[in-house]
Amino acid sequence: MEILIYVVLTLVMCVLPAGVVWLCNRSSLLGKLGPIMVLYAVGMAIGNIPVLGAYLQPLQDIVPNVMVPLAIPMMLFGCVFSRREAGRQLKIVVSGFLSVCIAVIIGYMLFGRHVYEGAEVGGIITGMYTGGTLNAAALQAIFGIKSETFILINSYDIIISFLYFVFLFSVGIRMFRWLYGGRRKVEQSEDVALEQTAKASSSYRKLLSREGVVQMLKIVGVTIIIVALSAATTIPFPAEWFMVVFILMLTTLGVAASFVPVVRRLELSYDMGMYLIYIFSFAIATMADFSALDLKAGVNQLAFMLVAVFISLFIHAVCCRVLRVDADSMMISSVAFINSPPFVPMAAVAMRNKQAIVTGLGAGIVGYALGNHMGVVMAEILSKL
Fold first, then answer.
1. CB contact at 8 A, 341 and 247
2. Domain containing 360: what range?
3. Tens digits of residue pLDDT in 111-154
4. Total number of domains in the chain
5. How buried is 161 (Cβ within 10 angstroms: 0-12 exposed, 13-18 middle, 19+ buried)?
6. Among residues 87, 2, 122, 3, which one has the least CA distance to residue 383?
7. Triad 36, 37, 41: Cα angle to 5°
8. 164 in a domain, yes or no?
9. What gap in Å lies between CA 220 and CA 208, rounded to an integer?
């Protein structure tokens, strides 16, 4: 019986996104929300059904870790790259790190002082929101804080990340593009939302054709080679550097493959990667466990983290505007810092801008590499305030 439940849940995770894409293609309201937001809502609802919790956990551990490494190369195969990327990346990284540090200090002054081990918690969320959960776990070991506190941080982070995505994907993308001077782009993106969803749906139907199956096998073959080479490259490095090196190599080899004409002609690669991100989005959303939250006891910690996320987003937006960084690069780098690189392809899908993927991954990799250092420095600064 248990095996049957696991099989059914796996099929739901794999097939449900297709149904959501179909619905978004048929409904103007759902089309404007986009498949990711719909999948997030459905995933959170399913994830909070008590009887399914134990059965979902193994899938939550496996599915996201499989989907992202496969999706990243696929979504890079068709990208076109410019020489201006290096200078823009430097501006983005400086802005992103500065924004998180300022926001964490503000959050600490307002709420963090009232949190047990508040300075250490501030250091952990600094590492988390410049790098990712990997950095947060490393900092927890460095500071030696209680595991209960760390679990609470992660529980709040899931909910805050959902709120962050709701804001960004519902109004944030259009708002920031408009504020950055992209009014026409905003209007066009709203007008053609259903058209682009329909195009994606058509691409998925093409995958079921004989030609599509042949192309899909080629895409999967090239992707598996890239994933295998990337994993092999991590062998000489310490375990704590695995994710940094792995994603760096996935990005590098994915970009390199895009310059090979045979690979670039695999026109369905982006749509395949997009579908894997839809599965990833649904799986991540099922992790939001509302019953585990103690909002009354941890209100200051929750407020501390909310300030760190949303204030850093708006400081980053102002800094990037001053530095003449475009709105899409600002937003996708914010996603890379706040949510870590695996969420970058998901944001690119929501923004309908695959060219932004490399910008986001580049920023996120720097965050992975420096997040621990930033966290230690921030904890020391906060302890003096």
1. yes
2. 79-266+291-383
3. 999 888 899 999 999 999 998 877 888 888 888 887 777 777 87
4. 1
5. buried
6. 122
7. 115
8. yes
9. 15
